[in-house]
Amino acid sequence: MSVICLFSPLFHFFGVLRMDGKAVKTILLYIYICLCVYLLITCSRSVPEDAHVSQPELKVEDVYIAVKTTGRFHKTRLALLLETWISRTKYLFLISLSLSPGYNMVVTDCQSDHSQQALSCKMSAEYDGFMASNKRWFCHVDDDNYVNPEALLSLLSAFPQEGDIYVGKPSLDKPITAHELLEGNATREVQFWFATGGAGFCLSRRLAEKMAPWASGSQFMRTSAKIRLPDDCTVGFIVEKRLGISMVHCPLFHSHLENLLLIGQRSIPQQVTLSYGIFENKMNSIEVKGSFSKEDDPSRFVSRNIHS
C-alpha cells in the first residue's frame, strides 16, 4: 500500500509530460528517492526497539544486600560471615539492634525476639534502606546464609532491567493460606506464594517502588498485621495479592530447613545462597572437601570460601 502511494505521482508524469530527457531524469530521481524512503521505513519497522540497546552490566555495587542479624549473634553467626563471603563483598548493609563498627550498619529499635512484629519491623528497615539508596536490586538474607556474589549477579542479570521481579525459593510445596483482616473484624481467605526469608530473596527496583503503598515506613508493619504472618510472608502477600505479580521460583536459594547434603559439590558454585543449622536433630550443612574438618568448620562456610 505504501509503495502504491509513493509511486502514484509517476502516473501523472507519464500522462501529462512528454518523455524528453529532462522528464526522464526527473522521474528517475523521484523513483530513487521513493525507494530510499521505502527501505528506510521498512527497515526501521523490522528491527525491535531494544535491539541496539544493551543492558548495563550488573555489578555487586548495584545490589542492596541486607543481612538481618541481632546483637547476640554478632560474635558467632555474623563473625563467620565477616570471615567468609562478606570479606569479598563490600556493598552490603547489616540490619541489627546494635552497632558493629566498620560496616554499613542499620541500627533499628525493633524487638530482639522472633515474633511477627519484630521480624516485620526489621524487614521494614531493610526496605526503607533500599528505597533511600540508588541500587537496582534489593536482596534479603539472614545471618546464617552464605551468599555467592558471582552466582547472584549471574541470576539477576538474566532478568530484564525494567522487569517486576520477585525471585526466591518457597519453603512450602503449595501457596500459603492466610486470613486477611477487613473492616468490621471481618476476614477473607487469601492464598499466595512467598519466598522464605531464611533462604534469601530479591526484588527489582521497579517492583519495590510499586510496593511502596503497603511497604513504605509504617505501612509494612500494618500490612503484616492484617494477615498476621511474618515478614517474608508479607512480602509475598504484597507482591502477589496487592500487585498481582507472580513470584519467580528459583532452586538456587537455600535455607537450613532443607537437606543441604542433597546439593551436589559440583553445583555449589552456581548456588546463590547456602545455609547451615540443625535439621532433623543433626547438623545440616553442605558437603565440601577442604582442609578443615567438620568439627572445625561445621557450617562448611570457611571451606566453601577458600574454594570460591
From TrEMBL:
UniProt protein name: MFNG O-fucosylpeptide 3-beta-N-acetylglucosaminyltransferase
PANTHER family: FRINGE-RELATED
Compartment(s): Endomembrane system; Membrane
Membrane topology category: Single-pass membrane protein; Single-pass type II membrane protein
Name of a matching Pfam family: Fringe
Record's keyword annotation contains Membrane: yes
Keywords: Glycosyltransferase, Membrane, Signal-anchor, Transferase, Transmembrane, Transmembrane helix
Major location category of this protein: membrane
Keyword Membrane annotated: yes
Protein species of origin: Neolamprologus brichardi
One term under GO cellular component: endomembrane system
Domain Fringe-like glycosyltransferase: 57-300
Gene3D superfamilies: 3.90.550.50
Family: Belongs to the glycosyltransferase 31 family.
GO MF terms, alphabetically ordered: glycosyltransferase activity
